[in-house]
Amino acid sequence: MTGAKVLLMMGCPEVPIQTSIVLYLSHKLTKLGFDVTVAGTTAASKLLKVSDSDGYYVKKLVDLDKTIVDIIEKITDFDMCFAFMHNDAGMTYATTMSSISQARMYSVVFGRNAEALAETIEFDCEKIVAQDVHNPVRLKNKLDKVMGEIVI
């Protein structure tokens, strides 16, 4: 699936590991030959821009709400979507994406209530769940496994 269009969808940046994991995943997927776009809320995008001010890890950063409109209007779409979520708002974005896009969905659920939130997912997706807030290593390892399966 090299060359496939991948969307990394960031919601509220309240939980610290989101920014580091998005930077990591964007960089890894880009190095593997995927066409990666990161879409975020205003706050999430600002954190990413400060963390990666030279655009080394994230080549394309766009507004999440505009991206959703572009998919609805059939201006763009993606082959895969990694939806990052730690609360109901993130779940809403992911649910919306699953209903408007043909992308294969990956729900990346993290934070203190990750297990409970993951249990409420009602759309077809692969769930990547880690009940972590500050330490991104367990989530990184789970994403590495998924990336290994995607590339094969």
Automatic annotation (TrEMBL):
InterPro entries: MTH777-like_sf (IPR036608), UCP006600 (IPR012033). It comes from the Archaea. Pfam families: DUF1890 (PF09001). This is DUF1890 domain-containing protein.
